[in-house]
Amino acid sequence: MNILIYDTQEQVNKVGATILANIVLAKPNAILGLATGGTPVGIYKELVAKNEQGLLSFSEVRTYNLDEYVGIDGEHDQSYRYFMNENLFNHIDINKANTHVPNGKVADAEAECVRYDAEIEAAGQLDIQLLGLGHNGHIGFNEPDDSQVPGTHVVELAQETRQANARFFANIDEVPTHAITMGVGTILKAKKILLVVKGEDKADIVKQALQGPITTQCPASLLQLHPNLIVLLDKAAGSKLS
Length: 242
Ligand code: PGA
What we know:
By secondary structure, the protein is α/β, with parallel strands linked by helices. The protein is built from seven helices and ten strands. 2-phosphoglycolic acid binds next to loops.
């Protein structure tokens, strides 16, 4: 595990973008595993800037996102497809047909999970998976539990996750109760994992995930098993590490 700690969130964004950009520069048709949430927004802005400056092209890149809410479609402004379009895909030279987010608006969400896993499998290994970290240790929407499902699956969201995401909806009742998420097994199959965490409010869970016991009750702790994990933190998020 390689832990990088920077003073500011701006530095974290720049370094995160550089790590992703270097993968695309070395392999123009790289497969990127992407994430939503507040954490990657600044990284995506940096990638857009590199693309606008002609330093980086996404024309051959393929992407697979971690997760999507069940019950809302890609046009909904809180869907993760919409988030990705708004924060990244609409502003870079990527072919939208090469961008993949689970479809949360299907009649059969379980079948969509099987389809999504098969699509990732057929595409080949993800060159890198970008991850944020939930306050409860979740990655994607893999919530703390007695066991974890390896592949893409439907999850019931933890109350604290719905609470955390209610800030984006009119009220908590509008936050979907279920989501489709890549499993921890899918995530761990990526060649490289980039876990990015910012803010003092995540310092305790960062400590638990990286230096605590490996347990399904803290899904991010399973990342300790990955041979090529980069953890990118601001000073506040890394403040409790020994
Ligand atoms: P955040 O969410 O980036 O909005 O803090 C991270 C997560 O819950 O995975």
